[in-house]
Write a structure and sequence with these properties.
The structure is a single chain. By secondary structure, the protein is α/β, with parallel strands linked by helices. It folds into 2 domains: 22-118 and 204-319, TIM Barrel (Alpha-Beta Barrel); 123-193, no CATH class. The chain has 11 helices and 12 strands. The strands form 4 sheets. Strands 1, 4, 5, 6, 9 and 12 form a 6-stranded parallel beta sheet that branches. A two-stranded parallel sheet has the order 2-3. The two termini are 27 Å apart.
Length: 323
């Protein structure tokens, strides 16, 4: 009975600490899109509701100010939060920005620099476009990926579960490839599908001018590599190039310093963390769920994924961050 009581006390204390501890929210897109296999998009109306709810119960600060603001926060002050977006989709510029401005809500945008200003979609969007959004596809696909030829029987688009299974298998194989190999395989897939892979307006990334203008004091820019690789799948030299060159490109884009980084897909090893530190970053975000506890490693900051929820749904997620 005593041990049960102690467990109850621990749960109560842990819940209180969670409710007061800083949180970092992780977004990707603010858009209405019909096919969203990874749940990356929040509808604009939902985003407005979420930011309104968040700013009612939390003081939202810049990511780079979060740790110091927590040190100086009194128990009477609102708990803290930081808002982040990954990748650099245009809809963050066109939809999220104005909501953030209305609520005076700071945000850090982690930019994948190699796609900025191009006519390409991110490779995962192009792959989704082929398998989940192209109605007529050949009945069979034979594709060589990393030296191995794989065969799939492709169902009609009405059989979405079958299409989605192939999409996920191809996605998993492309994810660990070098960027040039990813592009080569995408071109092959596009020819097989008869699909034009030029970026659609609903899925395009920001232009260079948009990145420059979004960095306005309320919104700051961080780096997210050049080509969004799964970093641990590559040599440490290749990892460092992706990390360091993305920082340099971001600093050239905004004509200012860039101190924050986000690991693509949340993947990293100790060597990756060292490469991020050696590239000159002072903090880095993961995708591991949790609150920012005292003495958290600034190179492994946790974040809470945000889905297409109501404002109340977001607040429930913040109250129970490990659910």
């Amino acid at each position: 009975m005593i041990s049960a009581a102690l467990r109850g006390v621990r749960r109560f204390i842990d819940r209180r600490l969670h409710n007061a501890a800083p949180v970092i929210l992780m977004y990707h897109r603010v858009a209405d899109i019909p096919i969203d296999p990874w749940g990356l998009a929040v509808a604009p109306a939902r985003f407005e509701e979420q930011i309104n709810a968040l700013t009612q119960v939390r003081r939202v600060v810049h990511l780079h100010d979060l740790v110091e603001a927590e040190r100086s926060r009194s128990s009477r002050d609102k708990p803290l939060a930081a808002v982040t977006f990954d990748d650099g989709y245009h809809d963050v510029y066109s939809n999220a920005r104005k909501v953030l401005q209305r609520h005076d809500c700071p945000m850090t945008l982690f930019v994948t620099t190699g796609t900025i200003g191009t006519d390409r979609e991110f490779w995962w969007d192009a792959t989704s476009r082929i398998f989940l959004e192209t109605e007529m596809l050949p009945a069979n696909l034979a594709m060589e990926i990393a030296g191995t030829t794989i065969h799939w029987a492709v169902p009609p688009v009405a059989q979405q579960e079958g299409r989605k299974k192939i999409f996920q298998e191809v996605w998993a194989r492309l994810r660990v490839l070098e960027y040039e190999s990813q592009l080569k395989n995408l071109e092959q897939l596009g020819r097989w599908a008869g699909c034009d892979l030029t970026a659609r307006e609903a899925h395009r990334v920001m232009t260079r001018e948009e990145v420059r203008s979004i960095s306005d004091g309320l919104i700051t820019v961080g780096a997210h590599t050049v080509n969004h690789p799964t970093l641990p799948a590559h040599s440490i030299e290749a990892q460092f190039r992706e990390i360091a060159e993305s920082r340099q490109a971001c600093e050239e884009l905004i004509d200012g310093p860039v101190s924050a980084f986000a690991y693509p897909f949340g993947d990293y090893t100790d060597a990756t963390v060292s490469a991020v530190r050696d590239a000159g970053f002072s903090m880095a975000c993961t995708v591991e769920a949790g609150v920012v506890r005292p003495h958290a490693d600034p190179m492994k900051l946790p974040r809470l994924y945000v889905g297409d929820w109501s404002g109340d749904g977001l607040l429930k997620r913040i109250k129970d961050p490990l659910s």
